[in-house]
Amino acid sequence: MARDPLISFDKVWKTYGQGEAQVHALSGVDMTIGRGEFVAIMGPSGSGKSTAMNIIGCLDTPTSGRYDFLGIDAGRLDRNRRAVLRNLYVGFVFQGYNLLPRTTAAENVELPLIYRGAPSGERHERAMEALEQVGLMGRQNHTPAELSGGQQQRVAIARAIVTRPTLLVADEPTGNLDTARSHEIMELLTTLNAELGLTIVMVTHEADIAAYAQRTIGFLDGRIASDTRKLEVA
């Protein structure tokens, strides 16, 4: 089933350095990701996957070519306008949970809403809703030290979705977790994708983790080497 495009690369190049030291991190990449897709990006170190993710998340811009996000030529926006786009529409989850250590789970989840200037009542209500969505009701007053690694990553996911973003960018989200917790986190991401219609772009180097996605894009030497989709069951 065709989906409206959310992300589009048109001959995207990303070049670092000059002269003999010049490196092409991306070499003319064409790629489209539709709204509501769950996409895994894989590839060896230096393949371009992290560079692509940084551009997708509006953290970086192409050297040449065009990056469209939500129909906006995001690659041509200045740093401040990209920050606005990120804050409004993109949530991030990283391998490290990046939680404030002496702050409760609820307070960690509220942080993006504080930056938006949301009133305290709304912040609390939406933080509770996000914690419920990730299965952590009853743990809202626990600090990170009182939570397991899997629970800390759930708090980080709640913080990423509390702003109700259009896109979730996940960078090795299970990298610090054991196998059982890794699969619990992937089941959660699959549920959020299905129930919220959240578009997820995830970088991983683990095939069993990528298998949760509907589509896997493989990078090699700055280019897309493969693009495979799961067969949809009728």
From TrEMBL:
Keywords: ATP-binding, Cell inner membrane, Cell membrane, Membrane, Nucleotide-binding, Translocase, Transport
Cross-referenced Gene3D superfamilies: P-loop containing nucleotide triphosphate hydrolases
GO cellular component: membrane protein complex; plasma membrane
Keyword Transit peptide tagged: no
Top-rank taxon: Bacteria
ABC transporter domain segment(s): 7-233
Keyword Disulfide bond: no
Gene Ontology molecular function, alphabetical: ATP binding; ATP hydrolysis activity; transmembrane transporter activity
Family named by the database record: Belongs to the ABC transporter superfamily. Macrolide exporter (TC 3.A.1.122) family.
Protein's UniProt name: ABC transporter ATP-binding protein
Organism lineage string: Bacteria, Pseudomonadati, Pseudomonadota, Alphaproteobacteria, Hyphomicrobiales
